[in-house]
Amino acid sequence: MAGIVPSRRVRGTPFSAGVEAAGAQAYTVYNRMLLPSYFESYTADYRHLKDHVQVWDVAVERQVSIKGPDALKLMKRMSPRDMNRMAQDQCYYVPICDHKGGMLNDPVALKIAEDHYWLSIADGDLLQWALGLAIGQNMDVEVFEPDVSPLAVQGPKAEDLMVRVFGEDVRNIRFFRYKRMLFMENEFIVARSGWSKQGGFEIYVEGEYNGMPLWQALFAAGTDLNVRAGCPNLIERIEGGLLSYGSDMRRENTPIEAGLAKFCNSPDDYIGRSVIEAQKAHGPNRIICPIAIEGAEDLPHNALGWNVYNKETWVGLISSATWSPDFNINVAIGMIERGHWDAGTVLQVDTGAGMRQAMIKEKFWI
Ligand code: THG
């Protein structure tokens, strides 16, 4: 396939110079910015991520800043997740829904101050939803995109690398908590989070001009740790069941269908509440499942959305699938209809290049 042309409309990031120099071989577009897809290959990147440490340009995870006296009120209207006990150093994974419970995004929320939150968004125009609600309901908040670009450090050696750049206190950051850490006179929010199951951190780099100096400092400090540029890895994230909004679930799905019921516990009157509560009580009509697809490591790499059948009956769609070197099977994420999602159920998948037998698994692989 041909390349992608960057422009003011399809922006690079503060780290793009580093990403290019490190040899990114393919990009996708996410929030109208470039997101690398792989460097050496999906499999080589995957092996390296599980064995060493990688630095990821995830500036595409744009921040929607909600600041002002009504910040918590707006967060509570938008969030199916209970915001009442969120601490000031905490991150929450929060599905955001429309009035029918349809998912609009699945950001990570950060509580910056009592009257200030960031939503670190997935691919979609969540700023316009937040701004529309704020204006429509006369809330006293500012809604804007600050000059903040997340850089993720992921892998088993992530903590050792981070300590060298930010100091020993990095070790005290708990999962989905953050601390403000100094880098060359700048204080950045550093959270223990990231879109892999290998452990690691996300640095919310404030000020575009700070991007490359931090990128270079991480690489200079990590030579003996075999640090490399990486990016969210297709294989590892399917093994880990990390969902990609727009691929695995969309506005046509509720968070209950997306398997995110545990993040829908708000006692407050949020948008979508009645549908979500009803689905929690009666069960959804379909749900995201881990699925193993049999056969060789030669699944087509086309846009997914493969139909799934139980004998003659259509029972759902596969939204993401790839070969897993560690589990020696094709790992997949699918949305499966009620009555067909029990672990052990045998299904048939139409890959567009032939039918494959598949099975619903009890849980994701990692
Ligand atoms: N980090 C930040 N922003 C993001 C993402 C991120 N924005 C876009 C996208 N990723 C949002 N989606 C997710 C999906 C899953 C997780 C985070 C963001 C995630 N889930 C953990 C899991 O499933 O194991 C744990 C969630 C929890 O227990 O709270 O990390 O990655 N900044």
Write the layout of secondary structure elements.
Layout: H1 16-21, E1 26-30, E2 33-38, H2 42-51, E3 53-57, E4 63-67, H3 71-78, E5 91-93, E6 96-97, E7 103-105, E8 108-113, E9 116-120, H4 126-136, E10 142-144, E11 148-154, H5 158-166, E12 178-183, E13 186-191, E14 200-206, H6 211-221, E15 227-230, H7 234-239, H8 273-282, E16 286-293, E17 306-310, E18 313-324, E19 329-337, E20 346-350, E21 355-360
Parallel strand pairs: 3-15
Antiparallel strand pairs: 1-2, 3-11, 4-9, 4-10, 5-8, 6-7, 8-9, 11-14, 12-13, 13-14, 16-19, 16-21, 17-18, 17-20, 18-19, 20-21
Bound molecules: (6S)-5,6,7,8-tetrahydrofolate (THG).
The site of (6S)-5,6,7,8-tetrahydrofolate has 16 residues, from loops.
Shape: globular
Chemical compounds bound to the protein: (6S)-5,6,7,8-tetrahydrofolate
Q: Domains counted in the coordinates: how many? A: 3
The CATH architecture classification of the largest domain is 2-Layer Sandwich
Strand order of the largest sheet: 12-13-14-11-3-15
Give the tags:
Gyrase A, domain 2; Elongation Factor Tu (Ef-tu), domain 3; six-stranded mixed β-sheet; six-stranded antiparallel β-barrel; 8 helices; binds (6S)-5,6,7,8-tetrahydrofolate
Give a verbal description of the structure.
By secondary structure, the protein is α+β, with helices and mostly antiparallel strands. The protein folds into three domains: 136 residues, Probable tRNA modification gtpase trme, domain 1 (Gyrase A, domain 2); 82 residues, Aminomethyltransferase beta-barrel domains (Alpha-Beta Plaits), CATH 3.30.70.1400; 82 residues, Aminomethyltransferase beta-barrel domains (Elongation Factor Tu (Ef-tu), domain 3). Helix content is 19%, strand content 32%. The chain contains eight helices and 21 strands. The strands form five sheets. The protein has a six-stranded mixed sheet with strand order 12-13-14-11-3-15, with helices on both faces. The protein has a six-stranded antiparallel beta barrel with strand order 16-19-18-17-20-21. A five-stranded antiparallel sheet has the order 5-8-9-4-10, with helices on one face. Strand 20 and strand 21 form a beta hairpin. The radius of gyration is 21 Å and the shape is globular. The model has no long low-confidence stretch (mean pLDDT 97). Bound molecules: (6S)-5,6,7,8-tetrahydrofolate (THG). The site of (6S)-5,6,7,8-tetrahydrofolate has 16 residues, from loops. (6S)-5,6,7,8-tetrahydrofolate (THG) binds next to loops.
